[in-house]
Design a protein that fits this description.
The protein is an alpha+beta fold. It has one domain (5-97): Aminopeptidase (3-Layer(aba) Sandwich), CATH 3.40.630. It is built from four helices and four strands.
Length: 113
């Protein structure tokens, strides 16, 4: 089991707030088959996914300073595996706290009823 209760408690508020429609089981399967990568320490958890030559950070939760610090591990992972870019799909506030990242795109979502 990759997603312990502690990891899920860190990630779930982000999943719920961002309306990321992914379950704990989906994350487990994705990590198991290497669709997703899990980065964690005692105070945060972060999930990435590959998209072409981009490593995308899709979900992060826990202590903000720990998340900022763990992104350094993500950057080393991406460099070692020859990714060209790292993207973050998230709220605009990340731009203020992560050095070297800049806004490239905006994701718009419309619910179809």
């Amino acid at each position: 089991m990759y997603i312990t209760d502690k990891i899920w408690e860190q990630l779930f508020p982000t999943i719920e707030k961002g309306q990321e429609f992914i379950t704990r089981e989906d994350l487990e399967k994705g990590i198991e088959n290497n669709t997703y990568q899990l980065f964690k320490d005692d105070n945060c958890s972060l999930v990435t996914a590959s998209h072409l030559d981009i490593l995308r950070i899709g979900i992060a939760g826990g202590n903000l300073q720990s998340i900022i610090k763990i992104t350094e591990k993500v950057e080393k992972y991406a460099k070692k595996r020859n990714y060209k870019n790292i993207e973050i799909v998230g709220r605009a506030g990340w731009e203020k706290v992560l050095n070297g990242y800049k806004k490239e795109k905006v994701i718009l979502r419309k619910e179809i009823q």
